[in-house]
Amino acid sequence: MTASVTRHDWTLAEVLELFNQPFNDLLFQAQTVHRTHFDPNRVQVSTLLSIKTGACPEDCKYCPQSGHYNTGLDKEKLMEVEKVLKAAADAKAIGSTRFCMGAAWKHPSAKDMPYVLKMVEGVKALGMETCMTLGKLSKEQTEALAEAGLDYYNHNLDTSPEFYGNIITTRTYADRLETLSHVRDAGMKICSGGILGMGESLKDRAGLLIQLANLPEHPESVPINMLVKVQGTPLAEEQDVDPFDFIRMLAVARIMMPKSHVRLSAGREQMNEQMQSLAFFAGANSIFYGEKLLTTGNPQADKDMQLFARLGIKPEEREEHADEVHQAAIEQALVEQRDSKLFYSAV
Ligand code: SF4
């Protein structure tokens, strides 16, 4: 296979062959592809903030935010716009270039949309890339988000279409694909990936990657999550994933979607530094840091930076405004939000 070819016609047999080759051969291939398209010593750094936590009507079996399970999670209403912008400014100050905002909704309501749009505009004005995950979107909502300046929309496929019904029954796979298609049509970038450790087979892992890679355009960002087992969820007692199998998943994702950022996502806190460095070698080049990853813990920013320093890795930069322009943009965004009537009233 040519290392740098971008394809959209992967078959199950081919992908299983990638998975089943000796570990060192797979990693060598993945690293070769990675070096063709990326600086191997740069990792993109995002911060994730939960802007609305818990009481979600969906029944995703892995998720502590689902209202179907009792996980003892404190439920919170939609955060005020000002607080979100303060968190974004803090994230920027510790080197984050993308600010991802997640809400535990089936879909955003008409009542919430104006606040969400203000958040996008405000974070954008700080000079950061913006990303949101709000559930299913209508065409109109997608267009409004794009117009407000949303760069990325996160909507995970989670697993293969065949295994999906074992994990979620309240939203169909076709619904998910439709939202991804709206996001593309509105000109935004897609962040979409899945989770390992839910009891899926190797075929299901391959099936998920085939769904993602065979989209008309590859998602720009592909988060690969390790299940974080939370007491109270139906998957709390699932078996651990073999760490080498997780690394294989990252490597195969890198080979199949050579130009995408592959994100080492939830579950990173359970991984030791050796495993994380192997993940970077396999082609993972994006992480969340510095804030809590939705409702589960995430290693602290300084610990991450220490690991980066030991590995000679630097955070990926994005084009910045000059410092003064940038500072002025931050201040203006905060003043505008303070004067706005769109503060969310959490009553
Ligand atoms: S994963 Fe998202 S949609 Fe599913 S229950 Fe959790 S918050 Fe709701």
TrEMBL record:
Biological process (GO), any one: biotin biosynthetic process
Catalyses which reaction(s): (4R,5S)-dethiobiotin + (sulfur carrier)-SH + 2 reduced [2Fe-2S]-[ferredoxin] + 2 S-adenosyl-L-methionine = (sulfur carrier)-H + biotin + 2 5'-deoxyadenosine + 2 L-methionine + 2 oxidized [2Fe-2S]-[ferredoxin]
Needed cofactors: [2Fe-2S] cluster; [4Fe-4S] cluster
SMART domains recorded: BATS, Elp3
Superkingdom of the organism of origin: Bacteria
EC number(s) on file: 2.8.1.6
Matching Gene3D superfamilies: Aldolase class I
Pathway(s): Cofactor biosynthesis; biotin biosynthesis; biotin from 7,8-diaminononanoate: step 2/2
Cofactor note (record): Binds 1 [2Fe-2S] cluster. The cluster is coordinated with 3 cysteines and 1 arginine. Binds 1 [4Fe-4S] cluster. The cluster is coordinated with 3 cysteines and an exchangeable S-adenosyl-L-methionine.
Domain Radical SAM core intervals: 41-259
Function field: Catalyzes the conversion of dethiobiotin (DTB) to biotin by the insertion of a sulfur atom into dethiobiotin via a radical-based mechanism.
Family: Belongs to the radical SAM superfamily. Biotin synthase family.
Quaternary state and interactors: Homodimer.
Protein name according to UniProt: Biotin synthase
Species this chain originates from: Halopseudomonas oceani
